[in-house]
């Protein structure tokens, strides 16, 4: 079994597998070239192009997993939502009224995005590492639908939630049903793991997440259990929600950079931890990247660890920094059963602890 899948199922692998959120994207010149020619939405909707972009980082770097190139917004237009990208998602008529919520269609998994199923099949024909499918969490999709576009505080969404809790549940129910069908379709087409992006979970307080976040994310994850692929859940800025996140039916929890990995592990016993280098580190000097990676690898000892960033690769990231990071992670050997943090000091001094060959 690949090191990524072994770790995702809980094995304390001899080296940490690594892939990066947004590894297919704007920091790669070969991506930007295609984007100029086709535009973002057309790239998402054309299986040959989406497959090619998925494979670009896999060809360039020896990463241990591929993530399908598409977007968390992809299931929304088939629900009847008028969506644009500028460069982030823009919803021309935010969904706020009972009529708007009731108008939303709930397409089946096969109807949502047949082009995604085809892209998955094309990637699987060519890709030597496991392919991760993905979807947005219901609460994060609702944040965009109600707010209308990205926002730092989502004040209109949070206000709408407290004013319209019943309507919010109706909206979240529909998004949950669509997400389940969409993810099952990806796995049936060949995706070997799935990740749920709850990018905006962290803006909610514990009670808000308990009411509107966790139950819907749990329902999506639970509905995939019989497919026997590892389930990864990412919430950003959500360290205050770890006690709740620890109860989700996901094998892997992807954590941002706010807590050290050993603390995340203690907060979520039994979960495989994925993360959590601050994406900004990849914009620093080589020595800083090496030291941060080795420190983090040390913090990740004591259980299964999938190396990743705490959030997506930043557009200004030099591809060489990604190459160096992947190499550093692969050269770090993880002594089986080592206590958390025990190798951090040793690794830091040498830059890399024990080269494999
Ligand atoms: O490599 C990968 O991770 C696979 C592809 C992928 C994209 N979006 C491509 C994309 C994935 C997994 C996503 C998920 C996604 N999309 C999330 C969750 C992850 C996160 O960042 O929190 C969110 C919130 C979105 C919504 C979205 N789509 C935003 C906010 C933006 C614009 C700004 C940005 O962050 O890139 C997009 C557009 C988008 N999605 C681009 C890419 C490569 C950029 C398009 C461009 O080239 O301008």
Set down the secondary structure blueprint.
Layout: H1 3-8, H2 29-38, H3 40-45, H4 47-60, E1 66-67, E2 83-85, E3 89-91, H5 98-103, H6 109-112, H7 114-126, E4 131-136, H8 138-147, H9 155-163, H10 165-189, E5 193-198, H11 206-212, H12 214-222, E6 231-235, H13 242-245, E7 252-254, H14 261-267, E8 272-277, H15 286-299, E9 305-309, H16 319-331, H17 344-350
Parallel strand pairs: 1-4, 4-5, 5-6, 6-7, 7-8, 8-9
Antiparallel strand pairs: 2-3
Helix pairs in contact: 4-7, 7-10, 8-9, 8-10, 10-12, 15-16, 15-17
This protein binds coproporphyrinogen III.
Please give a quick description of this structure.
With 357 residues, this protein is of the alpha/beta class. It has helices at residues 3-8, 29-38, 40-45, 47-60, 98-103, 109-112, 114-126, 138-147, 155-163, 165-189, 206-212, 214-222, 242-245, 261-267, 286-299, 319-331, 344-350, and strands spanning 66-67, 83-85, 89-91, 131-136, 193-198, 231-235, 252-254, 272-277, 305-309.
